[in-house]
Specification:
It contains 14 helices and five strands. With 335 residues, the chain is an alpha/beta fold.
Length: 335
Amino acid sequence: MNTGFIHIGMMKTASTYMQNVWLRDKSYSLSWRGTMSFLEKLRETAKKDDAFHDLSLDIHVDRNLNKGETLVISNEGFSTAYLNQLEFQAKIPHFIDLTSRNLGKLAKETPNLLMVIREPLSWIRSIYIQSIKEGWSGSAQEFVDRQFTFLKHSLDLEHILGCYQRYFGNILILPYEILKQDEQAFWEIISYSFNTPVAETRISEKLNPSLDVERVYLLSKLNGMNRMILNNLAQSDNYRDAQEKTYLVKNHAHTGKWVHRRFVEFANDEKIKHLYSMFNITEPEEDFLHFHLPAELSEVIRSKFINFLKAHILPDYPEFYEQELENHLQNKHMA
């Protein structure tokens, strides 16, 4: 296979859009779906603290690779794991070590590795909304407080890229903001850095529509209700049909969150307003999306993310990220 490069994330940096460009562009082919089984094995192995386990590279192309096409192996899950899985989030460093060690076998095919990064505060807001889409409930502050370990390890670029640097000699760290501001420049930077074709495909339709705050808030409430129902059902002493109880709890835990998510994503405004009325809600709580960073997380962002970037890319974006962090901390002190 003519593997051009491996793309490892971050989450919430337009990965879906980029993957669809690579899948549709005449010069490229993609392995994303073809990485999912491999990624799941990595996650399960890391849960067992077996960071040195050697896995087979079970990676396949998403469609047949035509002559002359450049393959991109892409999965944002290669740079973090265990969103909403609090009991496993301390294992993220082990997961990164394991993942980089196994993907490092591909360095014989390509030394090229792409990581797209993003201003940390906007990334936290975006990953919080993603957590709601995946079944979480509560405010942004509750998310930051309870999933602090996930955030701390996911923003530790020093560790993440330090692991990958052991195997890949040509790592490109590319700010997501460039894609938003000048898409042509974004693709040209990748092409120049990896000696690959410039992607010409552009996609106008929304591939992963964002939710407004009213819908995110409603989904959070639905997820909270769902969790309460499941917990009470599972713990009920009066419900004596153990087999049926286990079946209902296990299946609804997985499918229920998807029913709620798809409703919130596709219901018209009238249906959303009707559900607000049923819950006796007039509008989202004023501070629903607001959060303050714990001191330790602020320090991780400063030392492990921003300072790492200052040593590896041009200063414009790290300085912008640093100013956004300082503004956030200043607003906290003024509150």
